[in-house]
Design a protein that fits this description.
Length: 396
């Protein structure tokens, strides 16, 4: 250590959800903590999350809500820091929230409330936060690490990488954490955008263009993963919770299957309608069960016309299949530009599920989105950030 080196017990790179949670936890243990971030403000993704109201946890979160090449890794941390623990924290700070969908807790007022909780906790715990600070080099030394930062040379006993994934580069996302992992000999699994809207091939995009802005509840699935949530048609393609969820399981070239009427027994309904009102039409049935504009456009695309009595049983079955399993092949996704998360990342097989530290580098920790643990939509990603941040903060 040179005379001008500032020494900390713990340096955390990334003042996002995971980094701030880790900082407060380590600070309360009496550790001298510094959080570094190259952005001008902490917690930018918290502020933009949940449409500005931050879906900060999900009361029903279980390990089954996470994707990872090593699915058991997240269990321990999630068990030790539960959604209820985070709810107790926000309650202590008097944050008002509401359950917008089953289990999904959002701030009543603003996502700023959650960031304020974290910054207040960091302050009470004595953790220092330095923004506008980048790190250009990390070196391992006998007692820990030295960092070449834009603010000068820093040293620490424990280094926590909480620099997030690649989604939304305009918010400061970088591949920094992956570079650090590689530098220290850890494997980084291929990354891709998750919870991201689909783009469509020109023909389908043009056909669906008149429906832009329409949303309807569907059951969408890809690789046996079903999501019964709303789908939204946009001027670029398909979005809404159902499509975002499915996108995390989708690989280029895959088809996406959409049941447009998940609450209906489509074939049975059509057969009944045919026998009770033979003059009725498929268009009429769709109008009753889908947003009008959607019903009309979809019916026109399929070319279903004439009274139901003109359709034989096999044709009715075919129509029911088209509605219950509308199969599309997306052109791609909107990518990291709009993705809520990054799938893949630091391979958790080389990390301790108890401490989040690298098994071969016990003082080097990886938490939050930078690791290969990605949640479903609905507050699970923040729950992972809190749980992994606390797990590392308890030992770093
Ligand atoms: P996060 O990305 O939050 O923080 C990383 C920090 O590291 C950033 O402050 C960044 O500036 C800094 N950094 C990066 N590179 C650096 C470098 N080279 N040097 C220094 N600092 C560096 N989840 C959820 O559960 N509920 C929700 O409602 C939403 N909503 C949502 C909306 C949108 C639009 C997005 C993009 C994402 C969400 N998410 C979400 C996902 C959630 O925001 C995400 O999973 C967490 O923020 C991840 O927390 P981390 O702390 O790991 O990374």
């Amino acid at each position: 250590m040179t005379a001008s080196t500032s020494h900390y017990d713990v340096i955390i790179i990334g003042a996002g959800a995971a980094g701030l949670m880790c900082a407060a936890t380590a600070g309360y243990r009496g550790r001298k903590v510094l959080v570094l971030d190259h952005a001008n403000k902490p917690g930018k993704k918290i502020l933009m999350s949940g449409g500005g109201r931050c879906n900060f946890t999900n009361l029903n979160s279980t390990p089954a809500n996470f994707l990872s090449d090593n699915p058991h890794y997240c269990i321990s941390a999630l068990k030790r820091y539960t959604p209820q623990d985070f709810v107790e924290l926000v309650d202590r700070h008097g944050v008002e929230y509401e359950e917008k969908a089953p289990g999904q807790l959002f701030c009543k007022d603003s996502a700023k409330d959650i960031l304020k909780v974290l910054l207040t906790e960091c302050e009470w715990a004595g953790a220092e936060i330095r923004m506008n600070t980048s790190v250009s080099g990390i070196r391992q030394v006998a007692a820990g690490f030295t960092l070449k930062a834009s603010a000068g040379t820093l040293s620490c006993e424990s280094l926590v990488v909480a620099s997030g994934g690649l989604s939304i580069p305009t918010m400061g996302a970088t591949g920094f954490g992956y570079e650090v992992a590689t530098q220290f000999g850890l494997t980084v699994l291929p990354t891709r955008a998750g919870l991201v809207p689909f783009t469509l091939h020109p023909e389908l995009k043009q056909q669906l263009a008149p429906l832009s802005g329409l949303s309807c509840p569907v059951d969408a699935h890809c690789h046996q993963q079903h999501f019964r949530e709303p789908m939204l048609v946009t001027h670029r393609g398909l979005s809404g919770p159902a499509m975002l969820q499915v996108s995390s399981y989708w690989q280029p070239g895959d088809q996406v299957h959409i049941n447009l009427l998940p609450a209906q027994q489509i074939q049975h309904d059509l057969l009944t309608l045919r026998s009770e009102k033979p003059q009725s039409t498929v268009a009429h049935y769709l109008n009753q069960n889908l947003p009008k504009r959607f019903a009309q456009t979809f019916n026109e695309l399929q070319g279903w016309s004439g009274p139901l009595q003109a359709y034989c049983n096999a044709e009715i079955e075919h129509i029911a299949r088209r509605l219950g399993d509308w199969t599309i092949q997306p052109a791609g996704t909107e990518g990291y530009r709009t993705a809520e998360v990054t799938l893949g990342g630091v391979d958790t097989r080389q990390l301790s599920s108890k401490t989040m530290a690298a098994l071969d580098q016990p003082n080097l920790y990886f938490i939050g989105e930078v690791v290969d643990v990605t949640g479903h939509l609905g507050g699970h990603n923040f729950q992972w950030a809190w749980a992994s941040g606390v797990a590392a903060g308890n030992v770093a």
